[in-house]
Amino acid sequence: MLADGAGNYPSVSIALNSNESAFGPSQFAIQAARASVSNIQRYLENPTALLAPAIAQQHGLRQQQIAIGNGSDDLLARLARVYLEPGTELVRSCNGYLKTPNYAYANNADAISAADDNFTPSIDAILQCISERTRMVYLANPENPAGTYLPGDEIRRLHKALPENILLVLDCAYEEYVDADDYESGLVLAGEADNVVTTRTFSKIYGLAGARVGWMYGCSEIIDMVTRIGLTFPVASSSVAAALGALEDQVHLTQVFETNRRLRESFSVAMRKLGLKVYPSQTNFVLL
């Protein structure tokens, strides 16, 4: 938060549970959003045509396998509409993202919560919950609200054990904050397997939570289905402009990553000195 010329700070409420960026967006993103307002009377017909090529170039992906949504929540909800119906199940980790069961309930499906291991998702427990009714397995990696993560070999072990008709959903909203050596980007497995998708967002490290821009990567067939059931105009033109501007500013991204890593570690050390239990985090928040 920046002070004004008189040294006064504005009054603002911060929702800690939202895990918003403390550093704000890139100036590139702000300038791009402001410039887009001059044409705000027009609908943005195809945000994917604008954003997907930029995302694909940034991450070395195939742009036809990218879907754009009104935040990653929008894309996750669409996935649930495609895969879930009465009599089917979604399996998730019990202390994972609290909204996940709603994706099942909205489609009259059941949400099955697998036991975790000290706030870290347990692959064995998840596999024990798989049944003939299971259609989706949802896993946030890193996890929210604990900040814990699973290494790449554990994610692959889970995928290998799943029947081909079950979709593995890797919600990687906090992936840009990860510095663990054994972490594997969800984009890798989603690019290799037809029954894996991963979602990402501009809300966290890019600081564009209010813009509501998310994206998904997976096989072309799934991406096509998710795109077809989306809203006619799913993302605002200023939001797409801001996201494109954010992708151009790698300096800002690196600065946020490094500062967050430094503060996360120093905060964790300070809390341990107070005698508090600190769960190691790979995100921009810490569970105490």
Outline the structure in words.
- This protein has helices spanning 27-36, 47-59, 72-83, 100-105, 123-128, 152-161, 186-192, 220-228, 237-248, 250-273, and strands spanning 66-69, 89-93, 110-114, 116-117, 120-121, 134-140, 167-171, 196-201, 214-217.
- The protein starts with 26 loop residues before the first helix and ends in a 15-residue tail after the last helix.
- The mean pLDDT is 95.
- It has a domain at 44-235: Type I PLP-dependent aspartate aminotransferase-like (Major domain) (Aspartate Aminotransferase, domain 2, 3-Layer(aba) Sandwich).
- Strands 1-9-8-7-6-2-3 form a seven-stranded mixed beta sheet, with helices on both faces. A two-stranded antiparallel ribbon has the order 4-5.
- The chain is globular.
- α1 (27-36) packs antiparallel against α9 (237-248) and α2 packs parallel to α9.
- It is built from ten helices and nine strands.
- With 288 residues, it is an alpha/beta fold.
Find the CATH superfamily of the domain at 44-235.
Answer: Type I PLP-dependent aspartate aminotransferase-like (Major domain)
Q: Which architecture of the domain at 44-235 does the CATH hierarchy give at level 2?
A: 3-Layer(aba) Sandwich
Report the sheet-strand fraction.
5-15%
Q: Within the CATH hierarchy, at the fold level, what is the topology of the domain at 44-235?
A: Aspartate Aminotransferase, domain 2
Give the end-to-end Cα distance, rounded to a whole number of Å: 24 Å
